[in-house]
Amino acid sequence: MKLDLHRHLEGSHSADALIDVAREFDIRTPTFYDEPAARFRTPGELATEITMAAPTDDSSVFYRCIVKARAAYVSVPAIGALARAAFREAAAETDGFEMRLSLFSMARTLIEHQRIDWRSLAPNEFVERYARPILLEVIAARDHAQFATGTPMLLRLGLSRTFESEPHYRALSSIIIEHAHALVGLDVLGIVPPPDTEPLPTALVAILDGLRPHLPDLTIHAGEFAGHASVDRTLSLSPRGIGHGVHALQSRATLERLAREEITLEVCPTSNRLLIPTALAALERAHGGHTPLRALQAADVHCILGSDDPTPMGTSFRTELEVARAAGVDMARLAADAVRRWTEITGVPPAV
Ligand SMILES: [Zn+2]
Description:
Strand content: 5-15%
CATH superfamily: Metal-dependent hydrolases
Number of helices: 15
Low-confidence stretches: none
Number of strands: 10
Radius of gyration: 19 Å
CATH class: Alpha Beta
Shape: globular
Largest sheet: 8 strands, parallel
Mean pLDDT: 97
Order of helices and strands: EHEEHHHEHHEHEHEHEHEHHHEHH
Bound molecules: zinc ion
């Protein structure tokens, strides 16, 4: 059973889908359109622009790839077309998956493409004119793709620790509650410059507290760019999953707590290799040359596998399975942990 339980919508727009949408919606920006040649770029030409060429500790390289793909967020229907393609493509290589939706950044990007400063919009306008239509469009795209393929698709709402505006996030949280029935949980994500790369702003935690009665299953990206203390701090919010969390391997006590509380680590091998190469090498050196996934399994921590952002990372869930297998990961245990986590999230085991 192939279940991809850590995947982001913004990182799941393939070059094929982006060029299709650029043609359909006539998006003639330099990313998609070769002005001197008077033609749209080929998916192959675009792929080199939106895929990381090599590992780097500089996360801005990854972010630039995401920004280029987001150039296609020119309208709600364009976002819908991209979402339908992303859901169908994920379905083609899995038996089920969970997609994470960064609603704030998608709304902000759409507004910026209309040459409006998002900060000039009142929170209610930000939400009603942009965020809610995007959320409804993505939910409809999911429902459509799920019906067409028969592959179960979970949707999780991600809130970024970049936390640009408390009033706008508060307005966003009110519509998230209204549409909670179409979602499976909340995620905290986002990359912040040092010194604290994985902060948990107090006001964001308060917003999460207000949302959790409606969406109890919380996952938090932690222990990816920062050390094990970031995972420890995160555990005070009682998440059921930790995005990445590989730095937990720095602390025996952290590993024991994760195992004891049966918290699932969402491990994305190619993502780690590309985004945190120096930290990854140090973790592997400290664990007999074993990859984090294998070392975490040895510490009795529940782990699932994720493709994270397949387009900028030039990977797929299929590739992640091969990478894990080649690294000596216990694949039966990985599959059992994925079924266990799916059941925890949805309340029912995945259909075989
Ligand atoms: Zn992630």
